Description:
The structure holds 2 protein chains of 2 kinds.
Chain A lengths: L7 H11 L8 H9 L3 H13 L3 E8 L8 E7 L6 H9 L4 E6 L11 E7 L2 H15 L6 E12 L11
Antiparallel strand pairs in A: 2-4, 2-5, 3-4
Helix pairs in contact in A: 1-2, 2-3
Chain B lengths: L5 H9 L10 H9 L3 H13 L3 E8 L6 E7 L6 H9 L4 E7 L5 E7 L2 H15 L4 E3 L3 E2 L11
Antiparallel strand pairs in B: 2-4, 2-5, 3-4
Helix pairs in contact in B: 2-3
Amino acid sequence: MTTPPFDEIDRRIVLATQEGLPLVPAPYAEVARQVGIDEAELLERLRRMQGDGRIRRIGAVPNHYALGYRFNGMTVWDVPDARARALGRAVGALPFVSHCYLRPRHPPDWPYTLFAMVHGRDRDTALAHVEAIARLLGADDLGHQVLFSSRILKKTGLRLSGGHGA
Amino acid sequence: MPPLDETDRRLLDDFQRGFPLTPRPYAVLGQRLGLAEDEVRRRLGRLHDAGIISRVGAVVRPHTAGCSTLAALAVPPADLERVAALVSAQPEVNHNYQRDHAFNLWFVICADSREAVGAVLERIADASGLEPLDLPLLEDFHIDLGFPLWT
């Protein structure tokens, strides 16, 4: 699958919309003005980027922590490399998994390759999600851990550098 | 902020994706929820000000507009505040979390290129005296459709 090139205008659109649409009656017209194109072109480009998957979704981005999801566990799994992709797709499809990624292992310190984020309003709910993933993986679970976040030290939206000051 | 009412919940749960790509999107939301356009904007503004939503905007696929990695450091507890502060101070670091594990500091670095990401890792290694675990994304399995909040 080839993705069309990401040009400077797309880049400016991503930056402008990532920070949030303004809460004015015609927000796209406002973003278009910032980017330097007209509203119709902006909407067309947003549709295209959403169509080819570069934009996952456009909508309200809730702050799960503020909504009471205080138990955010990063679960990490050591799974057989040959099965990692199939297992990743299965885990990523679970409704309570918000992100699921494959990452490299760094033995001996870090044997885990499959990362899945789970969330709960209490610790037991989050741990029940971990158990459900373990059941799904069965014998392919060669070892896992759950790392709960104890403090958010920094959290900002996507930063793109170049072309806009800092 | 007063407790969320049914309309707030619908604003949060029904519109995590599929935000209308039309010139007056808040009017379209209002039609679906039986609210006036300015009431939709007022409620979203209130949810934003209260920290319930971080924004109404686009969620972009990783690596669409640059390069990133997830990195971790195993920081001796006595040195944690110093190292956490120097990691957070890097402009390319957009998330930095403390986690309950020997690798107790987890952060995401976003930059224009793999080389630029590597330079930030090096800067952090030099300043902290610790070797970061570099865990770039190899594959992303989740189609992010938002997350049901009240099920």
